[in-house]
Amino acid sequence: METLDRQISFHIEQDKDHLLAEIESSRQKMNLLARNQPLSSSEIVEISTYLDFLLNEYDQCRNKKAAAL
After folding, report:
1. Residue 66 CB coordination number (10 Å)
2. Cα(46)–Cα(25) distance, rounded to whole angstroms?
3. What is the pTM assigned to this prediction?
4. What are phi and psi of 19, to 5 degrees?
5. Given a cut of 50, is residue 23 above it in pLDDT?
6. Is residue 33 within 8 Å of 47, Cβ to Cβ?
7. Cβ atoms of residues 54 and 26 within 8 Å
8. Most buried one in 10, 41, 49, 66, CB count within 10 A?
9. What is the b/e burial string over 28-44, where b = at least 16 CB atoms within 10 angstroms of the residue's CB?
10. Average pLDDT over the chain, rounded to whole?
11. How far apart are CA 63 and CA 5, in angstroms?
């Protein structure tokens, strides 16, 4: 059981690292777009929605890790 817990924790950490990289990339893209477009533009709304999704996924990963410990 302990081996399975370690494997789950390892996969969650990999997922978290990937999500953090994607969150940062999306955040930077949204900031660049916001310099040249109104905040209500479809591109900014789309990336903002995607960023919300990523942040929710990251929060779920954090909760899974806490539950696995």
Report:
1. 9
2. 14
3. 0.76
4. -65, -40
5. yes
6. yes
7. yes
8. 41
9. eebeebeeeeeeeeeeb
10. 82
11. 14
